[in-house]
Design brief:
six-stranded antiparallel β-sheet; globular; single chain; 14 strands; 34% strand; 0% helix; mainly beta
Length: 199
């Protein structure tokens, strides 16, 4: 049975933890400031700011993530308690809470792009290399992120993620040894919980 073609990036999706530990779906609830002016989509990289609230991390070659956004809830004046796949910019509510995959040991599946949202590939030699995040606008219809990683990988220590495996199941037909999806982890010291300088 053929797996579907990966035709667009979809953000970072939790898979499991380093060492094969199970990702049990655990999240931390972190507040988003009322009226925050940037939309955040399911699978976007997010960070804490000095106010103790959450914002989208727009870093590419550098990032200071606290984790990945997996939806939010708040009290809507018309509909009451509301649960959303994404946070819409300028939402006004006093109880906006994001659900964040914040374990520094989490491993994420992510698409590889040549540039923008154009799917690219890497070979197995990318395993162990570091990569740049590619920040694309999220999908307002589905609420999903379009963040990806760049196909050009490097050993640069300051890049935010490291490739630890490739996903063979979605390798393009007719392109043996090429992979459009990989598994990544946060690089040492990039995650805010492991950064001694704090927020």
């Amino acid at each position: 049975m053929a797996y579907p073609l990966v035709d667009s990036p979809y953000g970072l999706i939790p898979q499991n933890l380093i060492g094969g530990q199970v990702f049990a779906g655990s999240t931390r609830q972190i507040s988003i400031a009322s009226g925050y002016n940037t939309s955040i989509f399911f699978g976007d990289v997010v960070r804490l700011v000095a106010t103790g609230t959450l914002e989208k991390d727009t870093g590419t070659a550098t990032a200071t993530p606290v984790g990945v956004f997996l939806g939010c809830s708040y009290t809507d004046l018309v509909y009451g308690k509301t649960f959303r796949q994404s946070y819409s910019a300028n939402t006004t509510a006093t109880d906006i809470v994001a659900y964040v995959s914040d374990d520094p040991d989490t491993l994420y599946k992510v698409a590889v792009v040549a540039s923008g949202t154009t799917i690219g590939t890497v070979t197995r030699t990318a395993v162990g290399n570091n990569a740049t995040l590619v920040q694309n606008a999220g999908n307002a219809i589905t609420g999903n992120s379009r963040v990806a990683i760049a196909a050009a990988t490097a050993t640069t220590a300051t890049l935010p993620v490291r490739i630890i495996d490739v996903i063979a199941e979605t390798s393009p037909i007719g392109s043996p040894g090429s992979f459009t999806e990989v598994i990544v982890k946060w690089n040492q010291g990039m995650h805010q919980y492991l950064n001694p300088t704090g927020v």
